[in-house]
Write a structure and sequence with these properties.
Elements lengths: L26 H11 L4 E5 L6 H11 L5 E5 L2 E2 L15 H6 L4 H9 L14 H7 L10 E2 L2 H15 L2 H12 L2 H11 L8 H6 L11 H4 L6 H18 L4 H15 L3 H14 L7 H8 L1 H14 L5 H13 L14
Parallel strand pairs: 1-2, 3-4
Helix pairs in contact: 1-2, 4-6, 11-12, 11-15, 12-13, 12-14
């Protein structure tokens, strides 16, 4: 319905395994049977599944079932022109909610990804797009996830949908709730000398863009490459434990220090502190993580990796293998010395 009729030669359809040796069905068989039993009439999925569609169509035919309509949506692309990757980008809607974007503005922005309204209209309500939606208007090429465009749309909603009288209430609900402040006050009570120091000490819990510093991220002559691997391993450790809170974060710092053979306090904690706060001191870090939240915590480590130059696919493969083996010490390197 988006790309029109697509024909695939038989020679390009491989001999797919449908049932594994343990008797369980593979994804392709389970997917088709499940969709049929649920009486699915339209399958909307990303372009990366286009190559699997001939297999699914043949299975429908083999069972004598009516094929559903297939719509393959354009992929969301990152700033590098490649598919938006969870490994490199914040991809959770919760991240954008926690960063202060309005739900209606975010939905408006997402609907623009690979789609265009009549007269190139860019600001519209959900009811408007429902009333006017036409799958023929969905683009066939990848859609660039343009954060600057998202910022502009969100600003329009802030100006036009949130009154001046209601603005502080919305900001307070977003980031300065009584519940959040009750968690934060014990962390700063004995650390501030004046009320004016509150924001100076805690700004990292409210702002979206931390001013990263290469020197702080590479303590004790740690190389940028090692710091990036530490950041990536922190994410992996918390993902494995499914805990991006205080306990999971603290355990991750110890897991990473052990795996890389690095000093926990002098290296790993300093990298973690600089990643989360942009500094090497501040409120208790582990307690602060519970306030910052999962999505922002994860995004901060991704930002550190990007800031320091990024990890190539080859080096990521090596790191993955070493991390899964529990020993990354051979990958640790010192920063090159001048002269």
């Amino acid at each position: 319905m988006i790309k029109g009729r697509i024909e695939t030669p038989w020679a390009d359809v491989d001999d797919q395994v449908l049932v594994k040796s343990d008797g369980f069905p593979t994804y392709h068989l389970a997917n088709v049977v499940d969709d049929h039993l649920m009486e699915i009439t339209h399958i909307i999925r990303g372009d990366e599944w286009l190559s699997s569609t001939p297999k699914h169509a043949l299975l429908y035919d083999a069972f004598g079932w009516k094929r559903p309509q297939f719509l393959h949506m354009p992929l969301l692309l990152g700033s590098d022109g490649k598919k938006l990757s969870k490994r490199k980008n914040p991809t959770s809607a919760f991240f954008y909610r926690d960063s202060g974007y309005l739900p209606d503005a975010f939905l408006n922005f997402l609907s623009l990804m690979g789609y265009s309204m009549d007269n190139d209209k860019e600001i519209y309500t959900l009811n408007e797009i429902i009333a006017e939606f036409d799958p023929k208007k969905v683009g066939s090429s990848g859609a660039f996830f343009d954060v600057k465009k998202l910022d502009w749309i969100n600003q329009q909603y802030l100006i036009n949908e949130v009154s001046e009288n209601n603005l502080w209430d919305r900001i307070r609900t977003w980031g300065f709730s009584d519940e959040k402040m009750a968690k934060l006050m014990p962390l700063i009570h004995t650390r501030i000398k004046t009320f004016g120091e509150f924001i100076e000490l805690c700004d990292f819990l409210f702002i979206n863009n931390i001013a990263l510093n290469e020197t702080l991220l590479t303590p004790k002559s740690t190389s940028k490459e090692t710091a990036m691997m530490v950041a990536q391993a922190m994410i992996w450790s918390m993902e494995k434990s499914e805990d991006f809170g205080k306990k999971g974060f603290e355990e991750a710092t110890h897991n990473v220090a052990k795996a890389f053979g690095l000093h926990h306090k002098k290296i790993v904690m300093k990298i973690a502190f600089a990643t989360i706060t942009g500094r090497h001191q501040g409120p208790p870090l582990f307690d602060s993580i519970d306030i910052l939240g999962k999505e922002k915590t994860r995004a901060r480590f991704l930002k550190t990796i990007e800031f320091l130059g990024g990890i190539s696919n080859k080096k990521l493969h090596i790191l993955t293998k070493a991390w899964n083996g529990g020993d990354c010490s051979a990958l640790v390197s010192a920063a090159p010395q001048d002269g």
